[in-house]
Amino acid sequence: MSDEHVVSLQDVEVHFESESSLLSRVRGETDVVKAVDGISLDIPENDVVALVGESGCGKTTLGKTAIGAQRPTGGTVSYRGQDIWKAKDNDGDVEIPFDEIRKSLQIIPQDPGASLNPNKTVQHSLAAPLKLRKPDMDSFERRDRIHEMLARVGMEPPQDYAKRFPHQLSGGEKQRVALIRALLMNPDLILADEAVSALDVSLRIDMMDLMLELQGQFDTSFLFISHNLSNASYVAGNSNGRIGIMYLGELVELGPIDEVLENPKHPYTKALVWATPNLNPDIETETESPLRKVDVPDPRNPPSGCRFHTRCPEAREACKRTTPESVAVDGDENHSVTCLRALENHEYWNSPELEGESAETPTEEPTLADEPVQ
Ligand code: SF4
Hints:
single chain; Rossmann fold; eight-stranded mixed β-sheet; binds iron/sulfur cluster
């Protein structure tokens, strides 16, 4: 991993106006969803970051913002030091054109089938990015390059696969075509958004292994997004990568995978580890959930202070009125947490515990861990 940041997000916000509730309509107000709220994240070359969070926590929005597919409403997003949206708007001295930035930041979508034209063969779908990236390549060179890539991802014989249409491919094969299409752009960063969620558990491992193998061979970085801590841990753990935990639009913990799993600092991270059977072999002997049994808050109306305080077993009165900031864990800049408990002398420690809400054994909560990676 080099020190140069391919992508740098500084204090990024993405706020959307949403369909207003009845009360807001009566009051003449507009509801705003803070899908991403004040997140900073640097992604160096050859880095792997796995982002985990529940549905609706803003992880997909953050991913799209990182690759320049979503304009932030606040903060900055830079590619190799160039503000992406200033490049898009031709604002000031633009050193890297927006088109070049977008080619360097690619995505493997959640549903690769939907992103492949049903009327075009694999050869045709893969030729398009090559024409864009290497306009001087003749059609024979393009064909050879596509066959080489198909063989590299195990789609053999490549001559046969190149002639197929999307409906003649399995889910895993479509995902491999999407991976090739992203790699043919020679990208610096690939966003893999729930890229393995739809695959069978056995195929997931193959796909994740393949992504990691090609990540090393192509010197690219990966931003891997999942609602499943097992999958995210597998990817980060096999690439010496980092893991980021998101909750209601905020990045509540970020650090090297071993650090975060073995020494989780945020109560939410602890809950996720608790709820992930293959990361927590003691789960059957534990009886008490680390989460308070309440509904996940509405992102249009997040709780005051620390957004996690309604579910947090460590919450105290101070958490209701103080918004914690991200701080380094024990002075380690690589591991950060957004929790008042990380501050030794904070008033949190003398503040009374929240009353009337106790941790209960969950029926279905937490929900993040589904099928574990074996
Ligand atoms: S700040 Fe308070 S409520 Fe928030 S995670 Fe820390 S202890 Fe829990």
